[in-house]
Amino acid sequence: MDKLVKLGQDIVLLWSKYWPMYMSGVKNTLILALVATAIGCVIGLICGILNTIPYTKNDPLPKRFLLKLIRVLVRIYVEVFRGTPMVLQAVFIVYGLPYFTDNALRFNNIWVAAILIVSINTGAYMAESVRGGIISIDPGQTEGAKAIGMTHVQTMTSVILPQALRNIMPQIGNNFIINVKDTSVMFIISFTEFFAAHRYIVGVNNMYFPSATIEMIGYLTMTLIASFLLRLLEKWMDGSDSYELVQDDQLVMSAGTYSHPDRGTPFDERSKEFHKNGKGGR
Q1: Which residues of the chain carry a pLDDT beneath 70?
Q2: Which residues are registered as beta bridge partners of 260?
Q3: Handedness of CA 47, 48, 50, 51 (dihedral sign)
Q4: Domains delineated in the chain
Q5: Does residue 206 come out as left (phi exceeding 0), alpha (psi in the -120 to 50 range) or beta?
Q6: In the prediction, which pLDDT does 214 show?
Q7: What pLDDT sits at residue 268?
């Protein structure tokens, strides 16, 4: 019990002295995670769409070659960035470029470097999520869109993608929450996020565990709030549980509906209701 009291006192002491630095780290972490997740979703969306463009043996050879090449390049990108740690990706991008180009290519803005690294990593994961979301849509919808003369682009933008994006919304939220935590490796390129603030504070006063406790509480709070907001967003996208059909004009409502050979519709001369109500009488 005494240890818990001592831990609480140390946490209060650290927070009262260094709270501006902690909060600055929280702000940088949230901005980086939000911006990088948004850019990563765009990258994943582009890769997922390119990866699902259909082609047949009857298509021209250049088109087939180009689509196969695109799929190979997307696959290489996805496998490399999903199969390696983000901290090593940061090292290769920030320190590898100057090494191989004799400082001709280097990042002078650490924000640009951090956003690029997290975005590319997120895009690799989102590419597979988007591809899975697209192929999960019933093929009959694509066939129906083609039957009414819609092009592939129209089918994707108006029929497939709206449904696919709703299906992968939980994965988008999951990637954002992962990015909130994984930005902690950006200290390797001297980006001052939440974990980097902890490292600096610990280096000043050697109170590692109390500062780590503050970090854990902070990360947990950010992820719980993000999860709650994402659930609200999903619920909003789902819409209402019940829908009422507008019936201001019953003639419009009956247009295009199925007519039974014997009954027809209430507005059809073949309908029993038509004659029962005296509408067919003279």
Answers
A1: 239-282
A2: 264
A3: positive
A4: 29-194+230-238 (1.10.3720.10), 244-282 (no CATH)
A5: left
A6: 93
A7: 47
Residues pairing with 264 in the sheet: 260
pLDDT in the model for residue 20: 92
| Whole-number Cα distances in Å, 272 to 256, 277, 282 | 19, 9, 16
If DSSP states are collapsed to H, E and C, what string results for the chain? CHHHHHHHHHHHHHHHHHHHHHHHHHHHHHHHHHHHHHHHHHHHHHHHHHHCCCCCCCCCHHHHHHHHHHHHHHHHHHHHHHCCCHHHHHHHHHHHHHHHHCCCCCCCCHHHHHHHHHHHHHHHHHHHHHHHHHHCCCHHHHHHHHHCCCCHHHHHHHHHHHHHHHHHHHHHHHHHHHHHHHHHHHHHHCCCCHHHHHHHHHHHHCCHHHHHHHHHHHHHHHHHHHHHHHHHHHHHHHCCCCCCCCCCCHHHHHCCCCCECCCECCCCCCCHHHHHCCCCCC
Q: What is the pLDDT of residue 166?
A: 81
At 27, which amino acid appears?
K
